[in-house]
Each structure stands twice: as structure tokens, then as C-alpha cells.
Design brief:
single chain, 158 residues, mainly alpha, D-Maltodextrin-Binding Protein, domain 2, 2 domains, 6 helices, 47% helix
Length: 158
Amino acid sequence: MMAMFNNLAGLEMIHVPYKGAGPAIVDIMAGYVPMMVSNILSSLPRVKSGKMRAYGVTSAKRSSAAPDTPTIAGGGLAGYDAATWFGILVPAGTPRDIVVKLHGAVGRAVLDPAIKQRYLAGGGEPAPSASPEAFREFIRAEGSKWAKVIRDAKIRPE
């Protein structure tokens, strides 16, 4: 996400790897590093308490958990869209009727008012795909987008 930010903004920042959000947040609050990309669940409590400042959310839409925080794109970095997402995948060759049944059950579950509220309370934005095929195309598009980021940033495995 930061590589995409650097590329679109024409910046070259040094990546400081951490073994999780906790240590990174401590260093942000202590002033050892100037900024980070973090998930809303671990950062929002510190933003609300005034210990950290949110400059923007990485998704294309504002977060309902932080509606006053603009998107990075809305803040001036056109084209920035780097949302974290989760999905349920099954082995290749799983019978279509099982895939369709599972897709429908998961879609109904995440939109159930009680479950949806729990997602929203944690900063999540439930957004089930319209179909298994739509989810497959979403995954392909994400793969292409991140492959370009990796190429442009010359990221290599270590």
C-alpha cells in the first residue's frame, strides 16, 4: 500500500518493516517513524483518543467507522485505492452447486444486521460480491493491480 502511495505521489520513502501493527504504532506515537499504513481496527482507537492523526483511508470510499477522514484519493492522490479485503475460497473443482450455495450463505450472513453491525464496529465494510464469478474477476483485477505496483516499485523477495 505504501509502495502504491510512493509511486502515485512521486516519493521515495524508506520502508521500515515491523512484525505487526502494535510495535509500529508504538514507534509512530513515539515519533521514531513519521507515518504508516495500518488497518483501521488497530489505529482508530488511537486516532479517536488524539494520540495519532489519520490523514486518509486507503479505500476508494470513506469508512463508515471514520466518516470524517477523507480517502487518500480524495485528499489529492488521484487513483489511490488500496483496500484490504477478505474472501472465502474453495479448492478448484468444487462443484458449482456447492460454490453457489456457500456464496449465498456467506452473503446473507455478512449482511445480517447483527453480524453487519459487528463488522462496522470494528471498521469493516461488509460488501459481498454479486456472484462467485464477480468475486473471481475482482481477485484477478486485484492481482493485476498489485503486480503493477510490485513491478513499478521494483519489489523483490528477500
